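User: My instructor asked us to take a sequence, write out its structure as tokens, and then describe one feature of it. I'm not sure where to start. Here is the sequence I was given:
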Amino acid sequence: MKRTLIRSTKPLKDILNRNVITIGPSAPVSEAAYLMMREDIGSLVVVDAERFPVGIITDRDMVISVIAEGRNPEEVIIEEVMTKDLIYVDEAVNIMDILSTLSEYSIRRMPVTKDGKLSGIVSVDDLIVVIATELVDLAMALSNKSKIL
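Assistant: Let's start with the prediction itself. The structure tokens for your sequence are:
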């Protein structure tokens, strides 16, 4: 019996967004809000001086932990309100493992590292596009090769 192992044609490194907007943990929340507005994004990866991801801050974090509590966004620093239990992934991980992790932890995006440094970010939306494209390609291939029995 012949067996063939097929690997994903789309490695994570080809899918992830390398244009990651970052911020340091000691920056004020007002700076994070400005960056999110300017870049039209809902989160920032928080990195240390060596560009290692140490947290993530979302627009929701700012609303719940700063605005709703009546705190001044210019006085509150990122480290006080960011998600510190960061889940991140190495570029070498396969896409199905990433999907499982996103689902298991109910998260929409994950920082991606290479050699310990931030190299990008991957989101549920990025992966949905890849999976949908692969399914369309599969459907077309099957419809072209179908045989009437």
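For the description part of your assignment, you could build on this observation: The chain has one domain: 12-145. Try explaining in your own words what that tells you about the chain.
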